[in-house]
Design brief:
By secondary structure, the protein is an alpha+beta fold. The chain has one domain. It has eleven helices and eight strands. It has a four-stranded mixed sheet with strand order 2-1-4-5, with helices on one face. It is globular, with a radius of gyration of 23 Å. It starts with 14 loop residues before the first helix and ends with a strand. This is Reverse.
């Protein structure tokens, strides 16, 4: 007999319910008031046919279109047929430092699992963006990435070329293996290792734009590219359907999931966390927004103390950029650390 599987619930259509979900998933942040002064002597390299064709080739043929409804195959055919028209358009954007408003409108898709439909955390929002805008994003992305890769911390393994989840796991496992590789525990060189994975709530939609802009400046990203990102963040609109018709919601923070620039901008902002000066036996390992706090010490008391210090610093930094780490109860002591460790899926072992 074939077992019948329960089907996922369809997405909600009630305007009030949807607004509640959207407001939680896309929290309002202070306005991005970062000013990028125009450098009259700055030379803005025009986009080339090679850049355009490389960006065009990255567009997936079967990816869903944005609000314009233009299939990716059709747009790619148009670019290949008349690249000079698109080059003129994209170069005008770069020279003026303007990301067109039409390409900052995003269509919300709410894929849902099997959790309660009234819970915003049940949804993993995707934003469908016009592909013509994504091509411009990719031109900007490649130019920013060329500079940023020289500065990004080695312990960030997400959204980067030639790096994977397995590389991050290998690093953590090797740290633990080295910790317990000594001859004996008492009086010997064996040590404890704790790995605490931190749960960052709704990370990608919550980052403050001002903090991203400041991080771009710290990395010496050229002014014209920072101006493009500032324009990219300005007047973003989320559109979604309800049973009463389409609705709009003003987006004031985060990096759009489904965008081209989003992952790179996230890594640039998150770099501030990964470059913390921590005790020698404490290390952060990241894959995108997932962070493992790895602590090695001879005694469990030292593990607790190091966790206290590191976790408090991490939580303070997260708050400054608009992020929240799991629970935020201000308590102390070993009992609290055991509770926090469980709360953040912590794991420790001794061999």
């Amino acid at each position: 007999m074939t077992r019948l599987k329960s089907q996922p619930m369809p997405p909600p259509t009630c305007p009030k319910q949807l607004l509640k979900i959207v407001a939680v998933l896309f929290p309002q942040q202070p306005a991005c008031d970062h000013r990028t002064e125009k450098d009259e002597e700055e030379v803005i390299p025009p986009a080339t046919v090679e850049e355009l064709m490389r960006a065009c080739a990255k567009v997936g043929n079967t990816k869903a279109p944005g609000l314009d409804g233009i299939p990716n195959v059709a747009l790619k055919a148009a670019i290949n047929a008349a690249p000079e028209i698109f080059l003129d358009m994209y170069n005008a954007c770069l020279q003026r430092g303007v990301f067109p408003g039409r390409w900052k409108q995003q269509r919300l898709v709410l894929p849902k699992g099997r959790k309660p439909p009234d819970e915003p955390s049940s949804y993993r929002p995707l934003c469908m963006i016009d592909t013509a805008g994504k091509v411009l994003e990719r031109i900007i992305h490649r130019r920013i990435e060329k500079v940023a890769e020289q500065h990004l911390a080695d312990n960030q393994y997400g959204f980067r070329k030639s790096r994977s989840t397995l590389d991050a796991i290998d690093l953590v496992v090797n740290i633990a293996r080295n910790a317990i590789s000594g001859e004996r525990w008492k009086g010997g060189s064996k040590m404890y290792c704790l790995v605490a994975t931190l749960d960052i709530k709704n990370a990608f939609n919550s980052a403050k734009w001002n903090c991203i802009m400041e991080a771009l400046e710290r990395m010496d990203i050229p002014g014209y590219l920072r101006k493009m990102v500032a324009s990219y963040f300005t007047d973003r609109v989320l559109k979604y359907d309800t049973k009463n018709g389409p609705q709009e919601y003003r987006v004031t923070g985060g990096v759009p999931q489904g965008s081209v620039l989003g992952p790179l901008l996230w890594n640039i902002m998150y770099d501030g966390l990964l470059k913390f000066v921590l005790p020698r036996t404490v290390k952060l390992v990241a894959f995108a927004n997932d962070v493992a706090l790895v602590i090695v010490a001879k005694h469990l008391k030292d593990i607790n103390n190091l966790f206290d210090v590191a976790f408090a610093r991490i939580r303070r930094w997260m708050e400054t950029v608009g992020l929240t780490v799991g629970r935020t109860q201000d308590q102390g002591g070993a009992d609290h650390q055991q509770e926090e460790a469980r709360d953040h899926h912590a794991a420790s072992w001794r061999a």
